[in-house]
Design a protein that fits this description.
Pfam family, one: Mab-21_C
Number of strands: 11
Domain Mab-21-like HhH/H2TH-like: 252-350
Organism: Papilio xuthus
Protein name: Protein mab-21
Distance between the termini: 33 Å
Domain Mab-21-like nucleotidyltransferase: 69-250
Largest sheet: 9 strands, mixed
Length: 365
């Protein structure tokens, strides 16, 4: 197919703009965050060392692999979540019957094995391992550790929440979430994935992702609030953090995510936090399905993919619904105020219009 020279020129101009944006704005954000992570993790490791001394069952899994930390997620440049993997699910069965959207429970496989569990005192009379009870115990230990650790002058527990949240140097917020890794399992509520009609991802990657499994996190679940309060405290939140990262390898997908996060931090950090980096990651995964061929993720297509994701974002904000990629019955906008979503839709539309009509838009973004 012959492409008119002016289209070629516009395309190469956009590629140049994107690369410049990536090498300056995105690289700057990454360098800043890497520095923050290093500082924050040093303090959190010290706190967790104290926790481990008091309670050996909570062993810190926060390990530095050449500047990368296992289980660390950047929520924003000032907010982080660190997942601490607990040992030995052992005598517990994973139960995911769809009654708790976005969540599952861990139940004793046999009532007689209660005493064999490492977490015996957190198992309810009905035989469920309570996510909230474990978190409550962990919260008490972390609060005590903050007072004892060598960084006690610059780390404080955030009160009025059941989450384990620290404020570090009055600038950063770190949530520490106890979790279980479920390798070799795949939840029934995500059994529909991948969609049969879509040629992405490749079957080998699907097999890899399903073998890697998912995590069960002990944290508040928005999808459950007000639904079934009896089970709410026992339920564990399903997380596909590793699976999502695996799917975004190859082509310019990771680069695309970094650009989206940078635009989000610079222009969409709005009151009520309607648009998060996780929304961007989710829409990027849907964009991968819409453009399943590898050549559609070449460097030259990056601008088109970003425009596509922003158009998806406008539509989601206007419909006030953003389905989770693996669990589409879970709405990631649940709990966000309609006004915040409406204001975000207007702002995203302004940005999108600028990107679609101005070949030099990225100089200003």
């Amino acid at each position: 197919m012959l492409v008119p020279p002016e289209m070629m020129a516009a395309q190469s101009k956009l590629v140049y703009q994107m690369n410049k944006y990536y090498n300056e704005r995105v690289a700057n954000r990454k360098a800043q965050i890497a520095k923050t992570i290093h500082e924050v993790c040093r303090i959190v490791q010290d706190v967790l060392k104290e926790v481990e001394l008091q309670e050996p069952r909570f062993i810190s899994s926060l390990t530095d692999y050449n500047g990368r930390f296992d289980g660390l997620e950047v929520v924003s440049p000032h907010e982080f979540e660190i997942v601490i993997y607990l040992n030995q699910m052992g005598v517990l069965n994973f139960v995911d019957d769809g009654s708790l959207p976005g969540c599952a429970v861990l139940k004793l496989s046999d009532g007689r094995k209660r005493s064999m569990s490492l977490w015996v005192e957190f198992i309810t009379a009905s035989g469920y391992l309570s996510a909230r009870k474990i978190r409550s115990r962990f919260q008490t230990l972390v609060a005590q550790a903050c007072d004892k650790c060598s960084y006690r002058d610059c780390v404080k527990m955030i009160a009025e929440t059941t989450e384990v949240k620290l404020r570090i140097r009055e600038r950063y917020i770190v949530q520490i979430t106890p979790a279980f890794k479920c390798a070799g399992l795949w939840p029934r509520s995500a059994a529909h994935w991948p969609l049969p009609a879509i040629p992405w991802p490749h079957p080998n990657i699907v097999a890899e992702v399903k073998t890697e499994g998912f995590d069960l996190l002990s944290k508040e679940c928005l999808a459950l609030q007000g639904k079934n309060s009896a089970m709410e405290g026992d339920a564990w939140v399903l997380s596909f953090f590793e699976a999502e990262n695996r799917l975004l390898q190859g082509g310019c997908r990771r680069k695309c995510l970094s650009v989206l996060k940078t635009i989000r931090d610079r222009h969409l950090d709005l009151p009520g936090n309607p648009v998060t980096c996780y929304h961007m990651k989710t829409l990027l995964l849907y964009e991968c399905e819409k453009h399943p061929r590898e050549h559609e993720w070449d460097e030259g297509a990056l601008g088109d993919r970003i425009n596509g994701i922003f158009l998806q974002l406008i539509s989601s904000l206007q419909c006030r619904r953003c389905p989770h990629y693996f669990l589409p019955h879970v709405d990631l906008f649940k709990g966000k105020s309609p006004t915040a979503l409406e204001n975000a839709a207007k702002q995203v539309w302004r940005l999108t219009r600028e990107m679609l009509t101005n070949s030099r838009a990225f100089e200003k973004l």
